[in-house]
Amino acid sequence: MPEEKSPLGKPRADPVSLASGKPHLVRLSLFGFGLSELGILGSAIVGIILFVIISTIGGIENLQDFWLLIASGFIFGVGSIFIYYINRKNGQLASLLFLTFLTVAMAFSDSPNQVADGRTLFVFAIPIAISSLLLRPVSSFIFAALSSVIITVLALNIQIVPNIVAIVGFFMLALVSWLSARSLEQALQDLRQINAELDRRVEDRTRELSESLARELVEAGKNQAILEGIADGVIVLDTKGKSIVANPALSRLLDVPSANLMNKTMEEILQAGKISSPDRQTTLTMLREPHKDKPSIRFRWGERTLLVNAAPVSTGLGDVIGTVAVFRDFTHEAEVEQMKNTFVAMVSHELRTPLNAILGFAEMIREAVYGPITARQAGVMERIENSSRRLLSLVSDLLDQAQIEAGRMKIHIAEFQVSDLMDSLRVALDKQAAEKGLTLTTKIEPGMPSVALGDFNRLQQILLNLGGNAVKFTESGGVTVRIYRVDERYWGFDVTDTGPGISAEARGYIFESFRQVEDVVIREHGGIGLGLAIVKSLVELMGGQILLASEVGKGATFTVTFPFEPSKEKTK
């Protein structure tokens, strides 16, 4: 591996590489001299000193042995330094040479007698023990065999019996070193695999995190650009009801500085504006429970009319973490709508007077008030009356719808006779049903009180509208109207016919204004699609509910229920 320099310009340490599994001598530097060299030389000197002390204690046989010991130590030190420089190029070769040199050097480090069967015998255990770590595990047996050969040759040379116990001990030590080295090698191999897997996972996770952060930054930039670019005001509230995001458009709509919109509750924001107390309370209720309220609320804010929609902000797991509200300037649309309602109401009111006059004069002419008329003239007058009544009904529907949308429709609650409600229905529909050959059945259930509370005129309008539709669209069979008591709190009536029925698709929009079932048979009867929309509005004004059950080809049933104790007066 390339030599790495320290800040002082000296070589750094070469660590043992776990990835390659090739150990080599560690190399450090200090003042230009390698610490490894100093360490090896120091070890040699210490070894020589130890040999001298041991020899002195054990007694040196002659001066030649002493100088042999000194020379062996010196050669050991110089050889170690030489091997170190080889290690800088090839660690495996240096380790092999070092251990071989060490083993051979031990044979000349003392007298043959001491080496073969004396104080120096234990030194051969050193290369046997460390060879399995520096080289391969099996090398311990090689150096055990080499050491055994050396002490055997020396023993035979001085004519003594080789130390069999030491030889067996060498091989036992080699076995233990081999087992330990194998375990260590396996552990290092597992560690290298774990490190490689960890490196791969860290690299993958780092790349994924980088890509994810890049995507988040892109999306955040897009969202910020969209939020600042849209004309509608947007505000996001956290779970505590405080604003955490507000775009510049909201500041312009509410005429409130952007700084006053952040970290504020909607109650604090609305409190500072020109908004009526009922509108403020309705808006706050919708923002607190956006999933339980109407989809949108309209209110006046100074000179502007604003439309606000709210929706919960949820996580992918469905947990609600806040609310987002969108404010739209609805001033122009509100003004156009008010102009339309005013125009329709005015025109409808102005048309009623001449229509009533036409209808009255037609009846008078048909009754020969102004003189005798022929049968043909009477038939023409009757058609004029029917057309005038139909036109008057359309004008009344337009006027009612305009009053409902303008919020001027009033409900007046008073006592009325339930039988009068049913009688008025029969008077209006008996002749029409008989002309079509239909059976008109009316019934008041025994449990229904004879007197009830409600707006009799509006109830009559509802019943006549539903009954008239049933007779108009039914070609055979009959129509059944039933008034009954639902429970202690509610009463209601059913209008059932045997007509063509209403499809599931049409049931989704049949109560909307100016909507009719798109069917040729039904469209033949005319109308502008306001009857059921007005019926639904009137029913809701009186605190009631209307339901429809139908199946194509099997007729339809409209069910209307009302409370026994409605509000005395209500305006929409």
Structure notes:
By secondary structure, the protein is an alpha+beta fold. It folds into four domains: about 30-195, no CATH class; about 230-330, Beta-Lactamase, CATH 3.30.450.20; about 335-405; about 410-570, 2-Layer Sandwich (Heat Shock Protein 90). About 55% of the residues lie in helices and about 15% in strands. It is built from 17 helices and 16 strands. It has helices at about 35-60, 65-85, 90-105, 110-115, 125-135, 140-155, 165-230, 250-255, 265-270, 275-290, 330-365, 375-405, 420-435, 455-475, 505, 520-525, 530-540; strands at about 30, 35, 235, 245, 295-300, 305-315, 320-330, 410, 415, 440-445, 450-455, 480-485, 490-495, 545-550, 555-565, 570. It has a five-stranded antiparallel β-sheet with strand order 4-3-7-6-5, sandwiched between helices. It has a five-stranded mixed β-sheet with strand order 10-12-13-15-14, with helices on one face. A two-stranded antiparallel ribbon has the order 1-2. β6 (about 305-315) and β7 (about 320-330) form a beta hairpin. α2 runs antiparallel to α3. The longest helix has about 70 residues, at about 165-230. It is rod-shaped. The two termini are about 90 Å apart. Residues about 1-35 and about 520-525 have low confidence and may be disordered.
